[in-house]
Structure formats: C-alpha cells, structure tokens
Design brief:
Layout: H1 5-14, H2 20-33, H3 39-45, H4 51-64, H5 70-76, H6 82-95, H7 101-107, H8 113-127
Helix pairs in contact: 1-2, 2-4, 3-4, 4-6, 5-6, 6-8, 7-8
Length: 132
C-alpha cells in the first residue's frame, strides 16, 4: 500500500465537507497525489453544487487521465459556469479520445472565448494522437 494512501483517504473524505473551499482543495490535492483510486470520488464531485469544486474535480481528472472520466467530462461541457466548461475541455485534452470530438466540435460555439480556445486545443491534442 502506498504511503500516500492515508493522505488520499483524508482528501477523499473531505470531498463531502460542508465547506466548498475544503472540497475544492481536496479535489485539487487528489489530482496532485495522482492515484487512480480518486477517479470515482472526483467524478462524483462533478455534480457538486459549487462550481469551484466542479472545476477542481475536472482539472484533477485530467491529471489522472482515466477513461472512466471521459463521459462525465463531456457532460461538463454543458455546465452553466464557463470555468467548469474550460476545466472539462482541458481535462478532455488528456482523457478524451476521438469519440469525444463530436461533442468538442459543438463546444467550439461556446459563448466564452476562453472555453472556445481550450476546446480547440483539446481537439488538436486528440487529433494528433497516434494510438487512438
């Protein structure tokens, strides 16, 4: 068992803390730890009431690069908050494969310039992969 395991469990428990800042920081920490055991709890955080937490979870899922997160991240391209859509698109540049391109293409019409630019980046990253 990894020496990170007790610390990781601490952050996973804190994903359910009543304070959004604690949940956000825990989601960020789980990405930094980099253990795939955090993927499922982070996917659940994509439904958090606070956009800060949803954004942090999306970005951490991108770092963890696990295909289980692809569909939930694609759904986040429709989030009401542009920062969450940005985080999801950036994460998809790592997690996504060519099956994500259709939904990413739709996101090129996003109202936010920031989101449109990162969506273009994600499309380019996925298009240039040789193994997918």
């Amino acid at each position: 068992m990894s020496e990170e395991y007790p610390r990781m469990n601490f952050f996973i428990r804190n994903l359910e803390n009543s304070q959004w800042r604690v949940r956000e920081e825990s989601a960020e920490a789980l990405g930094e730890i980099g253990d795939k055991l955090a993927v499922v709890p982070l996917i659940k955080c994509l439904n958090d009431d606070d956009w800060h937490v949803r954004e942090a979870a999306a970005l951490s899922l991108g770092i963890l690069d696990d295909r289980r997160a692809m569909e939930p991240l694609l759904n986040m391209l429709n989030d009401e908050k542009d920062s969450v859509r940005y985080g999801a698109a950036l994460a998809l540049s790592s997690v996504g494969d060519k099956t994500a391109l259709k939904q990413l293409e739709l996101a090129t019409k996003d109202d936010s310039l920031m989101v449109r630019q990162i969506v273009e980046f994600a499309i380019s990253e996925i298009d240039h992969r040789k193994d997918v």
